[in-house]
Amino acid sequence: AVFFYIAQRYESIKRFYLFDINPDLVNCYNAIRGNVELLIDELEIIEKKFLKKDRSARKEFYYRVRKEFNSDRAPAKLIFLNKTCYNGLYRVNRKDEFNVPFGDYKNPKICDAENLLTVSVLLQKAEIICADFEKSDKYIDDKTFVYFDPPYRPLSPTASFTSYSKDNFDEAKQIRLARFCRHIHGKGAKFLLSNSDPKNEDPKDSFFDEHYNGFIIDMVKATRAINCKAACRGQINELLIFNY
Asked: NCBIfam families per the record (predicted)?
């Protein structure tokens, strides 16, 4: 979202480098950038097949596509799953299998052709790289702005969601990211990082205060749409950490 916001509003920026550890997401964005017309055609076919079915048949169709996706990792199927799974969640198990259940929406918009065409144009400015965040180091200098959006540090053991890829983004990786932020700060780059605020659950949890000591840590209100309990959805404190 940050890339699309900046790319649309600051036309003087000619080049972006987008890093993500999730190969499915990178593959999908490359498909949107490289052959969006074919992707739209595939999504329109899937959408027509899905929407004409009743609830029971839709559910069966969803799980069939999910099984196929775990074999072929097709971008059109990933978008379909994102639009029809529970809460639009992306989650994989240790076998790297997408395992989010059916979402049971009445009339989901599976093929948003206008949006895909807009995204494709913006992605022409970007190089999309599937790699760990530390691999971005060679692209960073004192004229670089870097935004980090890692899997958020869990607020509690039972609230853990780090399965954005088959290798969880655990506490050690959170610490490694903090060290990398300090490293690029030393190179003169500007960075912004978003993460959870552990003090929502434990006011004594000083993880970010300790590891980002010397940087600006702002608390902001954000809306959480994903929670197994509807009553727990809504506004919650999150953190923005930056050096400028």
From this structure: dam (TIGR00571)
For domain 133-242, give the fold: Rossmann fold (3.40.50)
Radius of gyration in angstroms for the set of CA atoms belonging to the chain, rounded to a whole number: 19
Neighbours of 168 (CB within 10 A): 14
Q: Return the CATH class of domain 23-114.
A: mainly alpha
φ, ψ for residue 59, nearest 5 deg: -60, -45
The 10s digit of each residue's pLDDT in 1-36 is: 999 999 999 999 989 999 999 999 999 999 999 999
Main-chain phi, psi angles of 62, to 5 degrees: -60, -50
Q: How far apart are the first and last CA of the chain?
A: 21
Give the Cα separation of 35 and 47 in Å (integer): 19
203-234 residue pLDDT tens: 999 999 999 999 999 999 998 665 555 545 56
**Sequence ranges of the domains in the chain:** 23-114, 133-242
**Is 21 in a helix, a strand, or coil?**
coil
Q: Are 140 and 189 in contact (CB under 8 A)?
A: yes
